[in-house]
Amino acid sequence: PPLLNAIASASLQSLSEFTSSGMINLVWAFAKIGVPHWPLRYALSAAAVLHISEFDSLAFAKLSWSCAVLDMRDPPLLNVIAAEAIARREEFAMQERLNMLWAFADLSLGLPEGAYRISGVGGTRILRQT
């Protein structure tokens, strides 16, 4: 679609000016409409890896969901998401944890080896280091 290509091209040229939430919203928007603009996807993936520590828990959930919807099987990105999410797991609401679990499962990558196990329901932790 011409409009989406124009948005993607303009975004590629100004990606360094995006805030972390701007990057997440851009990848989420393209995932929501189901358009995997590959040059933009690769650029956003690389930028996300560099700025992962700036993301809040909602950004992690949106990024994970977007990866699953767009079938973005990008091991460096997914490994950084998993490592940072493990380190900051107390920041995540239950729904954000579940969204991330769904995304990793949907990508058929499973959970990072030795990193997670499901540990209960309700208010208990879903993500826990083993």
Protein architecture, described:
By secondary structure, the protein is mostly helical. Helices cover 60% and strands 0% of the residues. The protein contains six helices and no strands. The N and C termini lie far apart (46 Å).
Quick summary:
It is built from six helices and no strands. The chain has helices at residues 2-13, 20-32, 38-51, 57-69, 75-87, 94-106. It is globular and about 40 Å long.
Query: What string, H for helix and E for strand, traces the elements in order?
Result: HHHHHH
The general outline is globular
- Please outline the major beta sheet: none
Please estimate the helix content. Answer: 55-70%
What is the subunit arrangement here? single chain
Termini distance?
46 Å
The fraction of residues in strands falls at: under 5%
Low-confidence parts, pLDDT < 50 over ≥5 residues?
A: 114-130
The residue-averaged pLDDT reads 82
Radius of gyration: 15 Å
What descriptive keywords fit this protein?
mainly alpha, 130 residues, 60% helix
Topology:
Layout: H1 2-13, H2 20-32, H3 38-51, H4 57-69, H5 75-87, H6 94-106
Helix pairs in contact: 2-3, 2-4, 3-5, 4-6
